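ARCHIVE CARD
CATEGORY: sequence design from structure
SOURCE FIELD: tokenized fold
FIELD CONTENT:
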């Protein structure tokens, strides 16, 4: 029997491409496409879903990773492939921690999505070695330390250094030092410029929680 696939994707072009690929394959059956991750669990409750292609940022800001976590707890046998074009540094680790089966970047991925789907259904876990290389100012996202990325993500909230320090259990001086290193690496003159560029490039994405 064909493998039933649920697509959770709010962008028209990738969603339509996934549908074309699936319909052209004899192994997979396109069950349904939805644009909001919050509805994915309900679809699984009402239908036989074998595999989900799940975007991370979906309609109305609902997280595909949050939905994947709920589905894996309720239906551990359903395979999930996270699909995203965003290079956010924390998503790969989060996906692994909640039991997502595979992780695929929409752009520049050497493996085709159908290949990843087939291998995932066969029991493999397909993950990239690292996030895509993104240039930001005078450097790249791969030149930031994980702590610097933590700080950069918190900067997108617009909070004060003191508030960020409290949230990350650091001293204000340590937060200031990390921000200074970020500014020196990128060459940006203001933190507003740094944050705006990092957010627009998708290097850091702060959850709405």
């Amino acid at each position: 029997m064909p493998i039933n696939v649920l697509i959770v994707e709010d962008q028209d072009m990738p969603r339509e491409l996934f549908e074309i690929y699936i319909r052209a394959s004899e192994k997979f059956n396109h069950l349904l496409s939805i644009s909001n991750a919050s509805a994915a669990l309900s679809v699984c409750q009402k239908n036989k879903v074998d595999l989900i292609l799940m975007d991370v940022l979906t309609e109305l800001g609902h997280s595909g990773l949050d939905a994947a976590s709920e589905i894996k707890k309720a239906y551990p046998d359903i395979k999930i492939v996270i699909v995203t074009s965003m290079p956010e540094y924390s998503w790969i680790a989060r996906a692994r921690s909640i039991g997502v089966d595979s992780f695929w970047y929409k752009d520049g991925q050497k493996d085709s999505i159908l290949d990843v789907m087939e291998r995932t259904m066969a029991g493999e876990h397909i993950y990239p070695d690292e996030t895509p290389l993104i240039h930001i100012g005078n450097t790249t996202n791969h030149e930031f330390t994980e702590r610097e990325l933590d700080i950069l993500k918190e900067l997108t909230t617009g909070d004060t250094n003191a508030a960020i320090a409290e949230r990350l259990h650091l001293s204000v001086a340590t937060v200031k030092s990390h921000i200074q290193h970020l500014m020196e690496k990128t060459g940006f003159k203001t933190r507003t410029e740094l944050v705006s560029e990092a957010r627009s490039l998708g290097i850091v994405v702060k959850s709405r929680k």
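CARD ANNOTATION: Strands lie at 3-8, 28-34, 51-55, 79-84, 102-105, 135-136, 139-140. The first strand starts at residue 3 and ends at 8.
SHELF: design records, drawer C
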